[in-house]
TrEMBL record:
Residues 423-445 are annotated as: Disordered. PANTHER family: SENSOR HISTIDINE KINASE (PTHR43065), TWO-COMPONENT SENSOR PPRA (PTHR43065:SF42). This is histidine kinase. Residues 51-121 form the PAS domain. Gene3D superfamilies: 1.10.287.130, Histidine kinase-like ATPase, C-terminal domain (3.30.565.10), PAS domain (3.30.450.20). GO terms for biological process: regulation of DNA-templated transcription. GO terms for molecular function: ATP binding; DNA binding; phosphorelay sensor kinase activity. Residues 201-439 form the Histidine kinase domain. Its EC number is 2.7.13.3. SMART domains: HATPase_c, HisKA, PAS. Residues 162-192 form a coiled coil. It comes from the Bacteria.
Length: 445
């Protein structure tokens, strides 16, 4: 039996249903797109509001003045700091020419800044704007503002009241002055410590010849009284027998025989005092004086003599020094360096059972050198890189400023030499000083 075909009306109805289904599907897709776009718009609006709120909070928190204007210099926006400084609101300033904020010379300078900023940023240009309580000096920084296509669309001006800059500058100056004063006091303390060691050594050194001279002068004073008594008797016309008896009583023969030795001893003591004074005069030479030749060995022996006399540790000293080493410079400053090196070595061995120091010196073709080695505990490896740092010290509080080696390093560097300290393989430490060979240094030794 043959299958019955759909008639014309049925076919038209089916086509209509399919068309409606397609329309509904398209409408659903369009609605979904609208919902998605709406979500994106809301998210972007939220982000925009957050960004706007963020920038508003940043501008409100700024203590510096901020002004944004268009490419013709008309004000578009200012921050709260500017409103508080000038007493004018954003709405009253909108679209106003920026140069109206100033008068006189400041206006001309601001106009010039707005012209120059088209070519290059403007930094630290000082102008005055009309504030609530009169003109307020500002240090301005101007930068150009471009759109996405790179075209100039405006200028951003940031300014800081010069009064705040001056206050900050004054505070910085005061802090620097206080730091400099503290540094000078510490350096002075180190100099006084060196001077104290020097004075102690000089006191010991002067004591012997002065005591010798003092004792000889007392003896000469007694002998003078005896001679005056004898010559008075001679003037009175006494007999030869009376003069002989008084001569024996006063022991004048012994006095006369002793006079030469007393005078020679007194002269020797006076010469020794003169040598010490000359050394002091030489060692007290300042950096302002001209550099002059000096004998490094003499400086070393003098420093060693004064320090060892002051020390109570019973230090054994081994010397391997040439007769002389000629150097050129400020002998007083080099003496201070040598005193520091020997004193540090003496301090390092103070607690040793058998403390000892070794002093050596010599020269090469280009320099002269001096070394002082000790049998102390040595220097911890972590401290070696910091020995010449200012204020670094391993001594207990109150026993060192930490400036001795730092000052010594600077002195030696100014003389064109080197200063180094290292641990010895056999124990203890070794300090080495080198100086350029002075003119005529080839005659050393």
């Amino acid at each position: 039996m043959a299958q019955q075909q759909p008639h014309k009306g049925q076919r038209e109805s089916a086509a209509t249903d399919e068309a409606w289904v397609s329309v509904i599907r398209k409408m659903d897709e369009a609605y979904a797109d609208l919902v998605r776009y709406q979500v994106q718009v809301e998210e972007q609006n939220t982000a925009l509001e957050e960004a706007h709120s963020f920038f508003d909070s940043v501008q409100s928190a700024m203590s510096d003045v901020l002004i944004a204007c268009d490419h013709e210099g008309r004000i578009q926006q200012v921050n709260r700091a500017f409103e508080e400084l000038t007493g004018r609101t954003m709405s009253s300033l909108l679209d106003q020419p920026m140069e109206h904020l100033c008068s006189g010379e400041s206006r001309a300078r601001l106009i010039d800044c707005l012209k120059r900023v088209r070519r290059e940023p403007v930094r630290d240009e000082q102008i005055s704007i009309e504030g609530v309580q009169g003109p307020v000096p500002l240090a301005l920084n101007c930068s150009p503002r471009f759109n996405q296509r790179g075209r100039l669309v405006g200028v951003v001006v940031a300014g800081r009241p010069v009064g705040e800059l001056q206050r900050a500058f004054n505070e910085l100056n005061q802090a620097h002055a206080e730091l400099k004063l503290a540094q000078e006091r510490l350096i002075q303390a180190e100099k006084m410590a060196s001077l104290g060691r020097l004075v102690a050594g000089v006191a010991h050194e002067l004591n012997n010849p002065i005591s010798f001279v003092y004792g000889n002068m007392h003896a000469l004073q007694r002998y003078t009284r005896r001679l005056v008594e004898y010559f008075d008797l001679v003037q009175s016309g006494a007999s030869r027998e009376q003069l002989r008896e008084l001569r024996e009583k006063l022991r004048l023969d012994r006095v006369i025989a002793d006079l030469d030795s007393l005078v020679e001893g007194t002269m020797e003591g006076a010469d020794r005092v003169r040598e010490i004074v000359n050394d002091l005069r030489q060692f007290s030479s300042t950096q302002r004086s001209e550099k002059a030749p000096f004998d490094l060995v003499h400086v070393v022996r003098s420093a060693l003599h004064w320090i060892i006399k002051e020390s109570r540790a019973g230090i054994q000293v081994e010397e391997e020094l040439p007769e002389r080493l000629k150097a050129v410079g400020h002998s007083g400053q080099i003496h201070q360096v040598v005193v520091n090196l020997i004193q540090n070595a003496a301090d390092a061995v103070a607690e040793r059972v058998q403390p000892s120091l070794s002093l050596t010196a010599g020269q090469t073709d280009t320099l002269i050198w001096f070394e002082v080695a000790d049998n102390g505990p040595g220097i911890p490896p972590e401290n070696l890189p910091h020995l010449f740092d200012p204020f670094f010290t391993t001594k207990p509080t109150g026993q060192g400023t930490g400036l001795g080696l730092s000052i010594s390093y600077g002195i030696v560097a100014e003389h064109g030499g080197t200063l180094s300290i290292e641990n010895r393989p056999e124990g203890g430490a070794r300090a080495r000083l080198t100086l350029p060979l002075g003119e005529g240094g080839e005659d050393n030794g």
